[in-house]
Design a protein that fits this description.
By secondary structure, this protein is α/β, with parallel strands linked by helices. It has a single domain, classed as 4-Layer Sandwich (Metallo-beta-lactamase, Chain A). It is built from 9 helices and 15 strands. The strands form 4 sheets. It has a 7-stranded mixed β-sheet. A 4-stranded mixed β-sheet has the order 10-11-12-13, with no helix packed on it. Strand 10 and strand 11 form a beta hairpin. The radius of gyration is 18 Å and the shape is globular. Bound molecules: zinc ion (ZN). Zinc ion binds next to helix 4.
């Protein structure tokens, strides 16, 4: 899709893969009524039907690249190639992600800063690539920022998080060993030092340290949601727990607060897993919200 201009900021989407899975396996509380309401504004007949049992949820896995003030910032680095994963859908992938990055206009050495909204396997994978049997940073000139809460949580391999610890070992540790990683505190509301008008905000719940990234420079604000929300049906039901939330009630509160903050404003939202253009705007819709996608 064409780059999106927000004043002096340009945003590019870099696609890795689409992964369809049964909707109820990810959002088990979804009802037929929710889906009928969703179908009024989300037209994806290959995915969404009014029957939750047969509806699919298609994860788009993609990165966002921000250009601002001569800096090139990569937000979230997808799953990565050649990685051993306990989840069959992402085990030993061989996608055209780096070609897609080049098609958007960027070589790996062009990236100045890598920002992972959280440290789940589908947001950190391309931090590293395989070279002569070793994992090395994919982006040789970049500083990589990791939130302290997620870093310490996944490093300690907590129960039930083996998939993410596996990713930590091959996608975070080699970056730290190369001296390119930086642990940042997102407990402070705003970090301005990341770059001119690009900052982090805590968005805890889905993971212990997940953040949103904000960007604004002479135009409409942009917010990069990470996994604050996974699917458009959660605009209708912000309380729907996602199967892989660490703290589902906290994730739900965060989701509602983020929606309230951006609804009916000029903010452009950049979700991590919506399909099509993915980018769009939140509108109030009675007691809930709806989403207006930017054109593809
Ligand atoms: Zn994700």
């Amino acid at each position: 899709m064409a780059p999106i201009k927000l004043g002096k900021i340009t945003v590019h989407k870099v696609h890795e893969m689409d992964s369809p899975v049964p909707l109820l396996s990810q959002l088990p509380g979804t009802t037929s009524e929710d889906l009928r309401r969703l179908m009024r504004w989300y037209d994806q007949p290959d995915e969404i039907t009014a029957d939750p049992e047969s509806a699919l949820m298609t994860f788009s896995v993609h990165s966002w690249v921000i250009e601002v003030d001569g800096l090139t910032i990569l937000i979230d680095t997808c799953c990565g190639n050649h990685k051993n994963r306990a989840l069959p859908e992402v085990h030993q992938l061989d996608t055209r992600y780096l070609e897609n990055l080049r098609a958007a206009g960027f070589a790996p050495e062009d990236i100045d800063l890598v920002m992972c909204t959280h440290l789940h396997f589908d947001h950190i994978g391309w931090n590293t690539r395989l070279e002569n049997g070793r994992w090395v940073p994919t982006f040789p000139q970049a500083r990589y920022l990791f939130s302290r809460r997620d870093f310490e949580y996944f490093r300690d391999n907590p129960e039930g998080e083996a998939l993410h610890n596996e990713a930590f070992l091959d996608s975070i540790v080699p970056v730290m060993e190369a001296g390119q990683g930086e642990i940042v505190d997102a407990d402070i509301a705003i970090h301005r030092e990341i770059g001119n008008g690009v900052w982090l905000e805590p968005a805890y719940g889905h993971s212990p340290g997940c953040c949103t990234v904000h960007a604004q420079h002479g135009g409409a604000p942009g917010i990069f949601w990470g996994d604050v929300i996974h699917h458009p049906v959660q605009l209708i039901r912000h309380d729907l727990p996602f199967a892989f939330d660490t703290d589902a009630p906290a994730a739900s509160r965060t989701r509602k607060a983020v929606m309230e903050h951006v609804a009916d404003t000029d903010t452009i939202c950049f979700p991590a897993h919506f399909r099509r253009s993915s980018a769009g705007q939140v509108k109030r819709d009675g007691d809930a919200f709806r989403y207006e996608f930017l054109s593809d």
